[in-house]
């Protein structure tokens, strides 16, 4: 896993954690191939990183709808502007 993907996953979870607290971690840990510690210090991704990020966003999409996608896009653009767009799932492009 590359460091930027880990930062992106942490960012997506953090944005949602501000809104729903620890439930954001629980939702993240339901994504197959993703394991996240409750303090967000340890993130383990196994598998296709683009697909895992896509599934993570969809976990929150079920709670917040399109607002979740917009939050993720804005946070990524502000905090990780150099993240390669080709490495983003379509939902975040």
Furnish the topology, listing elements before pairings:
Blueprint: H1 3-20, H2 23-28, E1 34-36, E2 43-45, H3 49-64, H4 66-79
Antiparallel strand pairs: 1-2
Helix pairs in contact: 1-3, 1-4, 3-4
Describe this structure in words.
There is one protein chain. The protein has 4 helices and 2 strands. By secondary structure, it is mainly alpha-helical. It has one domain. A two-stranded antiparallel ribbon has the order 1-2. A hairpin with a 6-residue loop joins strand 1 and strand 2. The radius of gyration is 12 Å and the shape is globular. The relative contact order is 0.20. The model has no long low-confidence stretch (mean pLDDT 93).
Strand order of the largest sheet: 1-2
Shape: globular
Helix content: 55-70%
**Secondary-structure element string:** HHEEHH
Count of helical regions: 4
- Domain unit count: 1
Task: Supply Rg.
Answer: 12 Å
- Give the N-to-C terminal Cα separation: 20 Å
Tally the beta strands: 2
Question: What proportion of the residues form beta strands (DSSP E)?
Answer: 5-15%
Largest sheet: 2 strands, antiparallel
Mean pLDDT comes to 93
Structural class: mainly alpha
Keywords for this entry:
single chain, 93 residues, mainly alpha, two-stranded antiparallel sheet, 4 helices, 2 strands
